[in-house]
Each structure stands twice: as structure tokens, then as C-alpha cells.
Amino acid sequence: MDGQNPLKDTKREVFCQEYLTDLNATQAAIRAGYSKKTAKQQGSRLLSYDDVAARITHLAADRVNRLRISADDLLIRAETILKADPRELTEHRIGACRYCWGIDHEYQWKTKREFREVLARATAKLPRKPTVAQRDALPTEEGGYGYKVTRDPNPECPECGGLGSPFVQFADTRKLSPEAAILFEGVKETKDGIEIKMASKDRAFDTLAKHHKIAVETHEHTGKDGKPIEHDVKVKARVVLVPPKAMAPSETRPIPKEDGAT
Ligand SMILES: [Zn+2]
Q1: Range with lowest mean pLDDT among 45-49, 69-73, 231-235
Q2: Could you list the residue range(s) of the whole structural domain that residue 216 is in?
């Protein structure tokens, strides 16, 4: 009797399933449909049956296994989040400014339509009898058309000096790699535009660090009040990164001393 198969007696089977939810035999008996009046006795009697006991043991072990699988899933997910490249979701890029590739580095329009619309708006704002200066200040087509922000900046651009102008590009989330898809948690529309929500790499790191029980060892050269040296080993969900010692900016490196003194 290994408890692998559901019990033929349906009430007993339901009792086993129910018993695992709260380990309360009386309540499990009631939920399985036994009489409320005798549920207490019935519950403990059921637990004493071999088939019921075996079935409960099996179901409990099965549940532990299932929980273990979901713990593994969690770790795999955390690992994936850590490895995923956020640049797949959104890229901060530098593109040409409006003057980079305009004719004679004048303001370059994307299209004729863009120019027409801007000109119409500016014209509408003019007073009925505009001055010559006001007319001259209207937008012109001198810089030409074909502006593309995705084009590289022009190093010769007198306006931006080749620095271009920054823009943010969002990925088409239908085309993400499986790793980036796990990183992606949806979009939020804010008053400043669209915001991409990403899974927290910090949290993923903490999860993994806790799992791998990263030990942070702190060494003391002498113990407190001259007492023996204590090695304080603590398990922390955090790694302390020690920056490498900066090399002295000298042309020749001194020969290290024999005793290793620094
Ligand atoms: Zn430019």
C-alpha cells in the first residue's frame, strides 16, 4: 500500500485531500461529508486506517516535491532576470540633432507636411500687420527635409558639436528574447509618456544570494581587548565588493618587500 492511487472510497479520498489543507481531522471529516455529530471520532478513526495513512503520506510527499519545483522555478527566474540585458527593452541612444544634416546646418524638417504644419501655426500667431522682422522669423525650408533622429550625429555640426541629441527607444515586446521577456513586466502610461516596467535585478540578486548563502567573512587581526582573534562569519544576503587597490601612478613599480608589508 503506497498511497499512490486515489482511494476507491471517495469520501476517504476527499478526507485525505482535505486533511492536508489544515491537518485538522475533525474539520476534514466534515468537509468530506461525514456527519458533523461524529466527525471527531470519525476523523481519528480514519487516520488510523492503513490506506488513509498511506494516502496522506503520499500526498504530503507529493506536495513537498511540487513546492520544491516551484522553488527551482523561482531561482531560474531570478537567475534569468539577473542575466537579461535591459537594453533589449529600452535603449538610450544618441541621434542626429535637427542641424546635423540640414543644408548649411539649417533646421532640417522630417517631411514637407511637418514644415507646412509648423509654418501654418506660426503664421496664425502673427498679428494682422506683421513687421518685417516678424515675417523673417517664420520657419523656412532652408535646411531641407529628411531628418531622422536615428541617424548618427554629424561631428561637424556647429549646433551640437557632434554630440547629437538623446532619445529613448522601446523594444517591440513581441520580439524579445525569452530572458528579456521575463525582465519585462509591462508598460505604464504616465503623464510624461510610456514607462517600461522591469523586474528588479536587486531583488533577483537578493533571492539568489540568500539561496546560495553567500558568506561574508570579516577578519580581525586582533580580538577585542587582546582576546583571541574572532572570525565572525555571518550569512548575509549581500556581497560586499571590495574595489581593487589603485596602482600608484608611477612609471616604475617598486619591488615588493619580502615580508609582504604594505
Ligand atoms: Zn547636430
Answers
A1: 231-235
A2: 203-235
